[in-house]
Write a structure and sequence with these properties.
Blueprint lengths: L1 E5 L12 E8 L2 E10 L19 E5 L8 E6 L12 E8 L2 E9 L12 E5 L8 E5 L4 E5 L11 E4 L12 E5 L8 E10 L2 E9 L7 E3 L5 E5 L8 E6 L4 E5 L11 E4 L16 E8 L8 E6 L12 E6 L6 E8 L22
Antiparallel strand pairs: 1-2, 2-3, 4-5, 5-6, 6-7, 8-9, 9-10, 10-11, 12-13, 13-14, 14-15, 16-17, 17-18, 18-19, 20-21, 21-22, 22-23
Length: 357
């Protein structure tokens, strides 16, 4: 199954209501013609399509109810809740043998104003009980962690207070789960504008079940993802920084993520296609997966404003390879709409690579 959010999509003439496109998989991959558009007006989906809701602007997946089917978590941070025009809600759309079937709404346990509950999402086993849990970010400095999500929605989340500055979604923010110390329990990386050491700056804070104090990684990341790039059994963390046209990979291990064990790659790094140009936005989006089947996770990096040939800002995606030494530029590959086998054609301002998953 592949999912894509169209947060600004109009629904029945309602602008910006938002929609999710679900493409069903098959034994030969994503099946052409087997797609479905899901909105808040779809049967069984909580809520109603309203102007500016941006349903599906944030997405996550996981088998939250343990029935063997993947569920879809959709954040609607601009949903009007009562008199709060940006209160936000989260909908869990339940997977089944016939596809998505019904949904459950999660609301802000401690609403104030303009919380944008659901602005960031991450699924992981944060309690070590073998069941997926859900982390939900807001526009303030807290993250709500739901210990499992039953279909009734009846669960009491706990709030994780972070050192991220309130409303830092304006200054880039990310929420990512991964087992960075290899202890069998997922950790949580929260990125945003950080107040520490007497000043402000971008940082990613990594919270583990064992440590009360987070590890601070001084990187202002717009995008983040986790996977095991070096095959050592611990997840690693990759951060995308489009302002710096770079990605930085931090290697995990028994001690967790360490600032000293990191690799930064740009389009000027050996083996990486393209050139480091100020407006490319290399690092705008990152996603992980073992694309070549060698046992090491790889990273797809979006460069949405990449110029290909003479076509301005058509965009491209660069695949960086994992290895025993971690993420590397060796064997990297660039893909765009002019690449053989890729649908479409390079056109100005297509922004191919603005999102990867």
């Amino acid at each position: 199954m592949a999912i894509k959010g169209g947060s600004e999509a109009a629904v029945s003439g309602v602008p910006g209501a938002g929609a999710i496109v679900v493409n069903t998989g098959s034994s030969s991959g994503i099946a052409a013609g087997r797609s479905r558009i899901v909105t808040q007006d779809s049967p069984g989906v909580p809520g109603a399509a309203e102007e500016g809701d941006m349903f599906g602007s944030v997405l996550a997946t996981g088998d939250l109810d343990g029935d063997g089917y993947t569920d879809v978590v959709a954040g609607t941070p601009d949903e009007e809740v009562g008199t709060d025009v940006e209160g936000g809600t989260v909908a869990v759309l339940w997977g089944s043998a016939s596809g998505l079937d019904g949904g459950t709404t999660l609301t802000d346990p401690a609403p104030t104003t303009h919380d944008r509950f659901g602005a960031h999402l991450a699924v992981g086993d944060f309690t070590g009980d073998g069941r997926p849990d859900l982390a939900v970010g807001t526009s303030d400095n807290g993250v709500w962690v739901f210990d499992g999500v039953p279909r009734t929605g009846a669960t009491e989340p706990r709030r994780l207070e972070t050192a991220i500055v309130a409303d830092s979604s304006k200054y880039y923010r990310s929420l990512t789960a991964g087992d960075f110390d290899g202890d069998g329990t997922d950790d949580l990386a929260v990125g945003g504008r950080y107040e520490g050491d007497g000043g402000f700056g971008g940082a990613t804070l990594v919270y583990t079940a064992a440590a009360g104090t987070p590890t601070v990684l001084r990187d202002e990341a717009h995008a983040a993802a986790s996977a095991d790039f070096d095959g050592d059994g611990s997840d690693d963390l990759v951060l995308g920084s489009p302002d710096g046209n770079s990605v930085t990979a931090y290697r995990g291990g028994a001690e967790g993520l360490r600032a000293s064990a990191r690799t930064t790659l740009t389009q000027d790094s050996p083996g990486v296609p393209g050139a480091d140009e100020p407006e490319d936005s290399f690092g705008e989006a990152v996603a992980t997966g073992d694309v070549d089947g060698d046992g090491y996770a790889d990273v797809a990096v979006g460069a949405e404003f990449e110029t290909v040939g003479s076509v301005a800002s058509t965009g491209s995606v660069v695949v960086l390879r994992g290895s025993a030494a971690g993420l590397t530029g060796d064997g990297a590959q660039a893909v765009h709409q002019g690449t053989s086998g890729v649908p479409g054609a390079n056109e100005a301002y297509d922004r191919f690579g603005a999102a990867v998953r």
